[in-house]
Design goal:
Elements lengths: L8 H4 L8 H26 L6 H4 L7 H17 L1 H5 L6 H27 L3 H27 L4 H4 L33
Length: about 190
């Protein structure tokens, strides 16, 4: 049985292309660099030094913006703790420089891919996304006003949320479920 798309053809055509190979390689290289930094920091910790937990713990970031954000923080912490990290191994400056290059490469690859994707969108999809953004912003403004109005009553304030955006937002408590059709039991001859 063939599945039909759940969106209009003009919207389905705009599905984002698979990530470029360079973007994948950049993400992988930055993750390898991040593991090297964590191993260096862990080595200092085991030798009796102290380092921020952010240098040791590696999050399970999957999106490119999250990976870039974490890498930016790690680069800053690495520079701040360079003297301590240099006491247990080679100089930290080459590691910092490598991280900066990898960060810039991933940032440039991601922005280039997003620009290409945005330029290939049909005008109807761009208009749809613009209207969708306006609707979302309007709903957030209404929700914020409701939270402010009912600041004294958390239960009343909780009614102001984005559940309207979910397909089954009305099918919760208090809404009867559709009646199930009963099938008569079959008896087997003995």
């Amino acid at each position: 049985m063939e599945r039909t798309p759940r969106c209009r053809p003009t919207l389905c055509r705009s599905a984002s292309p698979p990530p470029s190979r360079f973007l994948d390689l950049s993400v992988a290289a930055l993750k390898v660099w991040r593991r090297a930094v964590a191993n260096r920091a862990r080595r200092l910790l085991r030798a009796g030094g102290s380092v921020p937990a952010e240098l040791i713990l590696i999050g399970s970031n999957q999106s490119v913006p999250a990976i870039l954000d974490q890498s930016s923080k790690v680069l800053g912490l690495l520079a701040e703790n360079a003297a301590a990290l240099a006491t247990i191994g080679p100089a930290v400056e080459p590691l910092i420089e490598q991280g900066r290059k990898l960060y810039q490469a991933l940032d440039q690859a991601d922005s280039a891919q997003e620009k290409v994707r945005a330029s290939e969108l049909p005008a109807s999809v761009v208009a749809f996304y613009a209207k969708k953004g306006e609707l979302y912003t309007g709903l957030k403004i209404i929700n914020d006003a409701g939270h402010e109005l009912h600041a004294h009553d958390p239960q009343a304030a909780a009614r102001y949320n984005l559940s309207i955006l979910y397909r089954r937002s009305g099918q919760g408590a208090g809404v009867p479920a559709p009646a199930a059709t009963a099938t008569p039991p079959t008896t087997s001859p003995s």
